[in-house]
Amino acid sequence: MPPRSFTYDAQGIACVAGARIPDLASAFGTPLYLIDEGELRTRITEYAAAAGAENLAYASKALLIGRVAKLIEEAGMLLDVVGQGELEFALRVGFPAERILLHGVYKSAAALRLAAKEGVGRIVVDSLEEIPAIAKASRDSGRAQDILIRLQLGIDPHTHPSLATSVPLSQFGISLDDGQALEAVRLALAADGVVLRGYHSHIGSAITELAPFRLAAEALGAFAVAVQTETGFWPDELDLGGGLGIQEGAPTPLAVVEEARDGLAPYAADLGRPLPRLIFEPGRYLVGPSGITVYRVVGRKRVGDGRTYLFVDGGMSDNPRPSLYGSYPLMLATHEAGGETEEVDIAGLHCETGDVLARGVLLPPLHAGDYLVALDTGAYNHSMSSHYNRVATPPVVFVRDGVARPATRRDSLADWLRFEVGI
Ligand SMILES: Cc1ncc(COP(=O)(O)O)c(C=O)c1O
Question: Which CATH superfamily is domain 7-36+290-417 in?
Answer without folding.
Answer: Lyase, Ornithine Decarboxylase; Chain A, domain 1 (2.40.37.10)
